[in-house]
Amino acid sequence: MTESLDPLTDADAHLISLEGIGKSYGNILALRDITMAVDNGRVTCVLGDNGAGKSTLIKILAGLHQHDEGTLRVMGAERTLSSPREALDLGIAAVYQDLAVVPLMPVWRNFFLGSELTKGAGPFRRLDVQAMKEITKRELAEMGIDLRNVEQPIGQLSGGERQCVAIARAVHFGAKVLILDEPTAALGVKQSGVVLRYILQARDRGLGVIFITHNPHHAFPVGDRFLLLKRGRSIGYYEKKDVTLQELTTQMAGGAELTELAHELEQLNLS
Ligand SMILES: Nc1ncnc2c1ncn2[C@@H]1O[C@H](COP(=O)(O)OP(=O)(O)O)[C@@H](O)[C@H]1O
Ligand SMILES: [Mg+2]
């Protein structure tokens, strides 16, 4: 495996750059010294097991939590994101695993939830149902999502389809950065494939995508760079050309620790 990246070159040119980011919850150190970058039209994967700090990292980027060490830059400007609103206004949209949808409401209602289109003025103002249905249909079609009926309650869609609707929604509302927290974790092979395809669609539309997963087999085919987290620390940060799926898998499985241990044992000169 070659050297880790130097993500600090051109920090200004990145959509988002993190440098030495750390976060504690009381005396629990959830993240420490994290450095990574997110670019237009690139997929940055964050890999790690449970408790690695993946969710903490995206909460910092989505404005739900604030970092207490290091520097976060969004489009070159140093920031601390103090609310989800602030993150959204900067074009950072997060899609969570447990999607905030209203299961009985139709797909189009969920698509526009909180940002409903209206027509008319004053007492004549009402929801522009027709426009919302048409836009939902069009946006989904443009992402290659074939939903027969946007009237269908979103609760009837598969988990994968719901993730895809959420991605299309973020794209429609102007996200520049799309954060996906374990979108494939609860899905089978086929549905995971569908979600992975939409990740590439979002990338091809020029978004910077942050894809969080514990599965290197999902990350490797779609990722341009990979940050590996373990117990809050980075254990590697690679460009795709500098790493193989095998190496990612080995590192995730603690291969690096094993190598280190072997090395230490060697130095003890036990033989
Ligand atoms: N709100 C919180 N309060 C206290 N500890 C937390 C909180 N959120 C996460 N942690 C701790 O921070 C560490 C990283 O958690 P998390 O970011 O959720 O990891 P992951 O998403 O990779 O599973 C864990 O040890 C977890 O217990
Ligand atoms: Mg998590």
TrEMBL record:
Q: Which SUPFAM superfamilies match?
A: P-loop containing nucleoside triphosphate hydrolases (SSF52540)
Q: Which UniProt keywords apply?
A: ATP-binding, Nucleotide-binding
Any transmembrane segments, and where?
A: none
Sample GO molecular function, one term: ATP hydrolysis activity
- Residue ranges of domain ABC transporter in the record: 16-256
- SMART domains found in the cross-reference section: AAA
List the CDD domains: ABC_Carb_Monos_I
User: Which InterPro entries does this chain map to?
Assistant: AAA+_ATPase, ABC_carbohydrate_import_ATPase, ABC_transporter-like_ATP-bd, ABC_transporter-like_CS, P-loop_NTPase
Q: What is this protein called?
A: Sugar ABC transporter ATP-binding protein
Origin species: Psychromicrobium lacuslunae
Ranked from the top, the taxonomy reads: Bacteria, Bacillati, Actinomycetota, Actinomycetes, Micrococcales
